Amino acid sequence: MPGLLASPGGPLRTALERWLFRIGRAEALPIRLPQRRIFVLPTPAGLAFAATLLVMLIASINYELSLGFALTFLLGGIAVTSIVHAFRNLLNLQIHAGRCEPVFCGEPARFLLQLGNDRDTPRPALQLAAGTSRARIDLPAGEVAEAALELPTSRRGWLRPGRITVETRYPLGLIRAWSVLVPDLRCLVYPAPEADPPPLPSGSNIGPGTRRHQHGDEDFAGLREHQRADSPRHVAWKAFARGGPLLTKQFAGSAGSDIVLDWAELPAGMDDEARLARLSAWLIAAHASGQPFALRLGDAQLPRGTGARHLHEGLMLLALHRSPDDER
After folding, report:
1. Who is most buried in 263, 287, 290, 293, counting CB within 10 A?
2. Is the CB of residue 164 less than 8 Å from the CB of residue 183?
3. Residue (of 305, 311, 254) closest to 288 by Cα position
4. Which of 215, 217, 249 is nearest to 232 (CA)?
5. Which long-range contacts (CB under 8 A, 24 or more apart) does 115-120 make?
6. Bridge partner list, 251
7. Would you list the domain boundaries of the chain?
8. CA-wise closest residue to 255 among 206, 211, 221
């Protein structure tokens, strides 16, 4: 029984936190912190300060020290005032959704939250916490500031930050005012690419009568970011001489085949995660080459295309393949 309550993920403790802090399902942003969502308790330093005041009061009574009474009640009044300031530092604080860029599994997911202050006074010493991640921020009057929380990733798919605590110990560190929220945020985690994948495969044409493209010297097709392996004669030296970045010319021909990445053509002995890691590495390599590529993943298919958006759509298919959180 004690273990059920003491365990961080115990059912009794979870139910107690849901009742005490009114934690329910993920709530849509923006979130405003009203009076009933803010909790106040003394910190360890505050408890020690209270114990000191008690000793001072007993000594003043015992020795009838007028100055002792004055000092004790003066310090007690300051402590009580700090409760009000800590509470007001969170009252009506606004939390807005920020962006969260997709990451590969193993990289930290970076959740950005925007804190809004519509008061004409600042909100100093705010802290956000999720898991082991902490972010401290001083919020100026009438402005919006951004805080970042980094969470580890251990599996592909959608990652949610879960319970986030917003707290402050302003102004003296004697009182902790805090609120708990579960914002409706998520970050897409791509499968980690294979470290040393084999060369890219090339598939057949997507359909009869469709023109196929590959790198060649027939027709100029555009510019892409320069890579070390590119031939010097394909570098856009004129654009570089005008102060632009180092780019490489791309050429398209009417012969060859598209890059087709097919789940079914991978070796039969590979498990699902190994297949996803290889396809992830191939998608990145195909995008870097500048060639059009397509992806076949069972019933899901990504048509032939190029560009960063096309790469993201392919990696998303891999991330959500047979995942319990496969919602788009």
Report:
1. 293
2. yes
3. 311
4. 249
5. 115/139, 115/144, 115/145, 115/146, 115/147, 116/30, 116/143, 116/144, 117/93, 117/141, 117/142, 117/143, 117/144, 117/145, 118/92, 118/94, 118/142, 119/92
6. 220
7. 28-188, 255-319
8. 211
The CB density around residue 309, as the number of other CB atoms within 10 Å, is: 9
Residue 26 CB coordination number (10 Å): 15
* Element (DSSP H or E) covering residue 88: helix 66-90
The residue type of 106 is G
Tell me how far apart the alpha carbons of residues 244 and 326 are, in angstroms, rounded to a whole number.
42
Query: CB–CB of 53/45 below 8 Å?
Result: no
Distance linking the first and last C-alpha atoms of the chain: 41
Strand partners, 157: 189
Query: Strand 123-130 vs strand 133-139: parallel, antiparallel, or unpaired?
Result: antiparallel
Tally of CA atoms within 13 A in the half-sphere of 315 that contains its CB: 26
Residue 214 near residue 256, CB atoms below 8 Å: yes
What local confidence, expressed as pLDDT, does residue 131 receive? 87
Lookup result for tokens 């402590």: 79
What does the radius of gyration of the chain's CA atoms come to, in whole angstroms? 29
Contacting residues for 138 by C-beta, under 8 A, at least 6 apart: 122, 123, 124, 125, 126, 145
Q: How much is the pTM?
A: 0.74
Per-residue pLDDT of the chain (328 residues; tens, 9 = 90+): 444 444 444 567 556 666 666 566 788 889 999 999 999 999 999 999 999 999 999 999 999 899 999 999 999 999 999 999 999 999 999 999 888 999 999 999 999 999 999 999 999 999 999 988 999 999 999 999 999 999 999 999 999 998 999 999 999 999 999 999 999 999 999 999 999 888 888 654 444 334 444 444 445 656 767 666 556 766 777 777 777 777 777 665 444 457 899 998 898 889 999 999 999 999 999 998 888 999 999 888 999 998 999 999 999 999 999 876 655 5
